[in-house]
Every structure is written in structure tokens, then in C-alpha cells.
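Following the same procedure, the fold was encoded as C-alpha cells, giving this record:
***
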Amino acid sequence: MKKAVGIIFSCFLLMGCGSDTYNQSIKQAKEAVAKGDFDLALASFEAALDEKALDDTSKQSYKQLAAYQQLKEDIENEKWRKALDKATAMLEQDLLNHSLRKKVEEYKKMSVNNIEKEKSIPMHINTTKEIKNQKETAKIKNTYLAKLELVTKETEAQSAKYASYSTAEYRMVEEVNFRMWDDLLNEIYGELQQQLSTSEMNKLRVVQREWISYRDTYAEKGIESFEGAWQGAQYAINLAYITKQRCYELVEEYL
């Protein structure tokens, strides 16, 4: 990224300034440092360096900015101990630019705070294996949240499309919607069997059996107010609705 910025910047200067590229680059670099735009400053020095060797003052500023860039990358990658070492070394320089020093001090403080946080985490939680498992679990949850959203859109679109059709056709669509939610529910339940401990899964089985009884009761709710085929349609709507809710509950509470 840094090299790309430098190349683009260099081309711009060459087109606009011709042989004066070096002086313009140095000027812009100094102005950028003063404004705290260190990425632009570094790119400007690199553009000047493409023309000829830097003078001693510019060379010193360039080295400081390059070191700052490495420090910034360690911070972004959460390599707190490496960042602390780099920040400490930079702050020992007497001629470090004032605005740059201020930012490096912020990064040093951030590194120290995060190192302390890491120390406070129990060792059995802070292992690489468990951190990896946590990331994998989060990924699985996000996958199922995406599936929930997709099925929601598909079933809502189907219901809206057939709302003005005959009762039999509308009932058929709602039965299909229910099967889609029921299939996803079974898929989620199967995933939980892989993710949960034996004791957690045993508790969930009890809760799930209770939910099935509740689902069957809920499906009958209010259908007596409908006549003929509309009773079947409303029954399917109720089943789809309560099963959809259960899918979201399992993902949010157990994954």
C-alpha cells in the first residue's frame, strides 16, 4: 500500500512539476509531518528519494517515518510487545519530531494497556487453540445468521407473491415456507450437537421437546375463526412463524 501511494504520488509530481519534483516532494513531506499526515509525508519522501539521495535532515525524518510505519503495522496487527519495543526505541531519540512523538507516546500507552489486559486473562483461556475455537464458533454463528436472513427473505417473498392467489395455492406456499424453516431448524440442531458439551446438549434436548409441544399447540391458535381451506393455510402460517422464531433463538442463544 505504501509503495503504491508513493508511486502514484511520484507520477503526479513528475507530471505537474517536471525537474522540480525533488524540492516539491521535500516541501510537501515537511508540511505533511507538521499536519500529522505521516502516511503522506512518508510517500512524499519516497517520491523525493526516487529523484536523488536525501539530505541529512530529510534522511533523518524519513527514517523516523519508516520506523513509525512499522510501529503502526504492529499496532494494527495487535502485536503489542513488538509495538512497545519499537515505540520505546523511537521515544529515546532526542530529535524525534514533536507531532510524531505525541503519536508514538499514544501507541506506547496503548501497547502497555493491552499487554496488561493479556496478563489478566487466565492462561487456559489465553491459549492459541481456544482462541482459534472462539473464532471458528463466531464464524459458524455468522454463517447461520446469514442463512436465517436468506430464508426470511425467500419465505416473505413467496408469501407476498401468492397472497392474491387461490386459498389452495396460498396454503401450499405456506406449507413450503414451513418446511424451509423446519429443515433449517434441523440443520441448526445438528450443528449444536457438534458444538455443545454432552451436559449442555442433554439440557437442550429437554427444552426442545417442550418447545415441540408448545409449537403444536401454537399452530392450532386462532384457526377456528377460519373456514375450509383457510384453516389449513393459517395452520401452516402459524407453524412457519413459530419455527422461524425457534431457529433464531437457537442461533442467538446456543451458537
